[in-house]
From TrEMBL:
Stretches that traverse the bilayer: 90-110
Highest taxon above the source species: Bacteria
The protein's name in its UniProt record: PA2779 family protein
InterPro entries with a match to the protein in the record: PA2779-like
Keyword Transferase carried by entry: no
């Protein structure tokens, strides 16, 4: 009887345990992902400022659309955008807005996004 209980217990424990899997991640991959998230958060925080929102609305882009497009940006696009913003002189908020809008227009041309109804994708 003890053997039967031991056997049933072992069987239940074996069936009840899931399998675990692990992958190997390099430090560069982890750092790149962290940098991507930080870059995205920087740009999203910039869009939250009232000055940027006012300028976006004046240009006909809703802040919600801008945030959606920023969330869809690739790591390379965000890195390029942040490099441009970091190289701008202080107080260049208008330049930052124009850069964001230019990137969104480029994404519209490539067919990745559809923010501006007057821009038709290149492939269509």
């Amino acid at each position: 009887m003890t053997k039967l209980i031991t056997l049933v217990s072992a069987l239940l424990l074996t069936l009840g345990m899931g399998t675990a899997s692990a992958g190997v991640y390099s430090s560069n991959e982890v750092l790149n992902q962290a940098h991507y998230q930080f870059s995205k958060q920087q740009v999203l925080t910039m869009v939250d400022s009232s000055e940027v929102q006012t300028q976006l609305e004046a240009l006909g882009v809703s802040p919600a659309d801008a945030k959606s497009r920023i969330n869809d940006m690739t790591q390379n696009e965000l890195t390029a955008l942040n490099e441009q913003m970091n190289n701008m002189p202080a107080g260049g908020i208008v330049g930052a807005i124009v850069t964001v809008l230019a990137v969104v227009a480029l994404l519209d041309l490539l067919g990745v996004t559809d923010v501006y109804p007057f821009i038709r994708p290149i492939n269509s």
